[in-house]
Design a protein that fits this description.
The structure is a homodimer. The first copy, chain A, is of the alpha+beta class. Helix content of chain A is about 30%, strand content about 20%. In chain A, the strands form 3 sheets. Chain A has a 7-stranded antiparallel β-sheet.
């Protein structure tokens, strides 16, 4: 279903859109199962917290069929194509765990700051679209967004390689305070299957998760094809070099995959 | 105003009571001002986060007039007297800062676990009553409570002296998971001046505060006089030795103090 004119306007004004109920429980359940299988491997794409709990798994669309289907899903690809007015390629793909009790902080940052500095992306014509695999609650480390902060361009940032296991270009407290005074903070919460898309320059963060409730989210970073990265410095499984446009799969492709997997499991 | 029969029943069942709007903005504003003055001193009662930001200030009722009046305030003393059926003394008094950007985690724990192990308190006939000095929001590190967990008695705990600057007897993840499956988690939020009282055995925690919004709370730990501590090991400014019953001040004592301070400031 295309975004409405009102939704497009809200995205321009606020820098984000929250779309509850995009995926069914059957579709999300298979993703949760496959994510756990991926976290259990010791491949280089799986990064861990300082405690050893999984923090994120990169590039799962390249080695897992369910996540491949999600990464080409029309419910995610079409709205972002609509915003950018052209076809998209996959710049980055992450399954963030924010594990129960151990999921650590993501400090305040803009994603495009990293894509520009580390990958040589010319313009902020890429964005994250997040799929909730668990219920995101106020208490289990929800993503916090600063509405309207995407209008600030790329803000000065420092390279934090200490706080967590993930190097990040983070903003200082004075900058965050100023932006929050203007735009406030929102922390969208919702059931598994909800989708959140936000501008590459929207300032965001998430607190540690100290509850028993895991908070797994898949992030597709979709980039306009013409805006491909020019001077990548990170490995290709973090900042992809396949700039071919994504051809969306059928709307029921992930559901059919989930059903087939369930039948196979029942037969075994 | 005495607690109603329904409130008393809820406390017995759930282990906590939330009482919004107990103190006026004028009463809370003077407390905020005085708390900042206290945090700015380098007295031994002020403990800091690993970053240097204030974490908590002990025993402020013994060296600050506004906090002395709060520590004897009938809106706090009377409800707790009602629950215990006898007079109270002040076992501990803390002004927790949970500073903007820097307020660190308090891991899952029961307070009475510490009072029993470290102070020799015979029974869980003491409780915390918290006064919100700032607005407590879902995003700035609210206190999280596990309803009904106070019925478990004292649970096994390990002495965490590493995670934060404050040594604490903390519960393991399996125990917290089991209790949350039974009782869930609540995180009461509200305006400055709201009050939260909870049983000494109620399991609770709070996540770090990574927002620009400070979340200062005063905690009075009120103990039934007959339940005085027998074998204290902590300094007397952490676990008090003055077991005399608290004589409540007049209901308008703090407000009059705030007005006098405002007049004095205006005249200067």
């Amino acid at each position: 279903m295309p975004l409405t004119a009102q939704q497009l306007r809200q995205f321009v004004d606020e820098g984000y859109l929250f779309l509850p109920g995009c995926f069914s429980e059957a579709e999300v359940a298979i993703l949760r199962d496959e994510a756990e299988s991926i976290y259990a491997t010791d491949r280089q794409e799986v990064w861990r917290e300082k405690t050893g709990a999984p923090r994120t798994a990169f590039a799962a669309h390249t080695y897992n069929e369910a996540f491949r289907l999600l990464g080409s899903h029309p419910r995610l690809i079409r709205p972002v194509e609509q915003v950018f007015g052209e076809q998209l390629y996959m710049h980055q793909y992450k399954i963030n765990a924010k594990a129960a009790f151990e999921g650590d902080v993501w400090q305040w940052h803009q994603d495009y700051g990293t894509w520009a500095r580390d990958d040589g992306m010319p313009e902020p014509r890429a964005m994250n679209i997040a799929v909730f695999m668990d219920e995101v609650m106020a208490i289990n480390g929800p993503l916090m967004l600063v509405p309207k902060s995407h209008k600030q361009g790329v803000l000065a940032a420092g390279h934090d390689v200490q706080t967590t296991s993930y190097p990040l270009w983070t903003l200082d407290n004075a900058t965050v305070t100023r932006l929050v005074e203007e735009g406030g903070i929102v922390a969208p919460t919702g059931k598994p299957g909800s989708v959140l898309m936000f501008h590459g320059n929207l300032v965001h963060a998430s607190a540690p998760n100290i509850t028993p409730y895991p908070r797994r989210i898949v992030y597709l970073t979709l980039c306009a094809v013409s805006n491909y990265i020019r001077t990548p410095t990170r490995p290709e499984w973090i900042a992809h070099r396949d700039f071919n446009p994504i051809a969306p799969v059928a709307d029921d492709a992930l559901l059919n995959y989930a059903r087939a997997a369930a039948s196979k499991a029942a037969a075994e």
